[in-house]
């Protein structure tokens, strides 16, 4: 690498990596907090601990990072080139004979580094995190105790069921509980008990209630039946959602396994080979977008040349071009989701981005090329 990159290349690459790390940390933190706030209310409302909340939100980080890195690579390139232009560093370097194509070399190396980072995340880390996240989500769904044991709050573990407990001492007993079950059509059952316990059984958790009453109301016949009891067992097994944790989704399977064991993956997930192929290419396209993003930012600014008034027009142009490329990427993803065999469209954003970069660098290398042709054309017309 040292023989390939010169002193200026290392300087620019160092600037890009520093800015990239800073902006990545900021944006990942912003997106993570935004997602964490949404999960915080739901998980804490279900009685989950702060450790469960941190584990679930942390497992979502690889997906956030993979989406953020191409954006921060673009921002880093724009910021670095704009600063070097405002401080006349680019003018000095270009005066020594560096062409726009030569200046783009460290930016290309920077894009390749970010691409490798995104590729490692999308092909390896994200599937592992998705698998672990599925297991954690299934555990939370099955954790009836955590969803029910919330003091002084009416909770709804499943639609049609309301549960309330006044006090939960360290002994684990439940004092003054209320349970309402209106899932049966035409009937509603309410339970009141002074104390209760939740115990495990082979069929699932069981709520043992002591010293209480059972109210069964027939909404069709308008009749109410009241029964007192010393003890009553109420099964909570049907509160559990039938989630099959043994089966994985394609998002939770690494690319290596998709390529080396497609038959077993097909039998496990139920998807065909076209869907597997589309998943692999979708991950590749997301990683390759990290090459295009910084190059567009660099080329958009370098094509504007030096200006004492700044490069704001070129910055807005670069952002507009990045949005255009990203819209092509989104269109390709939508097309392949409708038909997995359309996976070549996933690489259209890469091709368009490279064409835009080439055109901008070509113009930056010779901005007067169209002006040179204009008099010649006019001369031919006059003859």
Question: If you had to describe this structure to a student in words, what would you say it looks like?
Answer:
- It is a single chain.
- This protein is an alpha+beta fold and 383 residues long.
- The chain folds into two domains: 7-141 and 271-382, no CATH class; 159-239, SH3 type barrels.
- It is built from twelve helices and five strands.
- The protein has helices at 7-45, 50-59, 61-86, 89-95, 100-142, 144-148, 255-260, 262-269, 273-302, 312-338, 348-365, 369-382, and strands spanning 161-167, 174-181, 187-199, 206-218, 223-235.
- The chain has a five-stranded antiparallel β-sheet with strand order 1-2-3-4-5, with no helix packed on it.
- A hairpin with a 5-residue loop joins β2 (174-181) and β3 (187-199).
- The protein is elongated and about 95 Å long.
Number of helices: 12
Structural class: alpha+beta
The backbone outline, from C-alpha atoms, is elongated
Q: What count of domains describes the coordinates?
A: 2
What is the H/E string?
HHHHHHEEEEEHHHHHH
What number is the mean pLDDT?
83
Radius of gyration: 31 Å
Oligomeric form of this entry? single chain
């Amino acid at each position: 690498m040292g023989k390939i990159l010169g002193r200026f290349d290392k300087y620019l690459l160092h600037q890009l990596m520093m800015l990239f790390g800073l902006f990545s940390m900021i944006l990942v933190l912003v997106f993570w907090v935004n997602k964490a706030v949404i999960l915080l209310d739901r998980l804490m409302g279900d009685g989950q601990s702060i450790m469960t909340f941190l584990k679930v939100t942390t497992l979502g980080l690889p997906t956030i990072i993979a989406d953020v890195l191409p954006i921060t690579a673009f921002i880093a390139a724009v910021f670095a080139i704009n600063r070097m232009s405002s401080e006349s560093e680019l003018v000095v370097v270009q005066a020594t004979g560096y062409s726009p194509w030569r200046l783009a070399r460290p930016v290309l190396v920077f894009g390749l580094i970010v691409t490798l980072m995104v590729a490692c995340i999308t092909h390896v880390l994200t599937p592992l995190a998705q698998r672990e996240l599925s297991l954690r989500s299934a555990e939370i769904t099955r954790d009836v105790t955590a969803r029910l044991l919330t003091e002084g709050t009416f909770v709804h573990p499943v639609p049609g069921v309301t549960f309330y407990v006044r006090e939960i001492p360290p002994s684990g007993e439940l004092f003054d509980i209320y349970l309402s079950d209106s899932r049966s059509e035409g009937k509603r059952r309410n339970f009141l008990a002074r104390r209760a316990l939740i115990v495990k059984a082979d069929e699932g958790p069981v709520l043992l209630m002591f010293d209480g009453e059972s109210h069964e109301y027939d909404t069709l016949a308008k009749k109410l039946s009241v029964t007192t009891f010393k003890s009553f067992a109420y099964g909570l097994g049907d509160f559990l959602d039938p989630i099959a944790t043994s089966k994985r989704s394609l998002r939770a399977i690494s690319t290596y396994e998709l390529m080396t064991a497609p038959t077993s993956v097909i039998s496990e997930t139920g998807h065909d080979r076209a869907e597997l192929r589309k998943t692999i290419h979708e991950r590749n396209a997301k990683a390759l977008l990290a090459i295009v993003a910084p190059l567009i930012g660099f080329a958009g600014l370098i094509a504007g040349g030096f200006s004492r008034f700044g490069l704001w027009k070129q910055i807005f142009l670069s952002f507009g071009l990045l949005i255009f490329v990203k819209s092509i990427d989104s269109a390709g993803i939508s097309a392949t989701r409708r038909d997995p065999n359309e996976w070549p469209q996933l690489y259209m954003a890469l091709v368009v981005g490279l064409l835009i970069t080439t055109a901008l660098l070509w113009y930056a290398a010779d901005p007067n090329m169209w002006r040179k042709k204009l008099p010649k054309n006019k001369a031919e017309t006059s003859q």
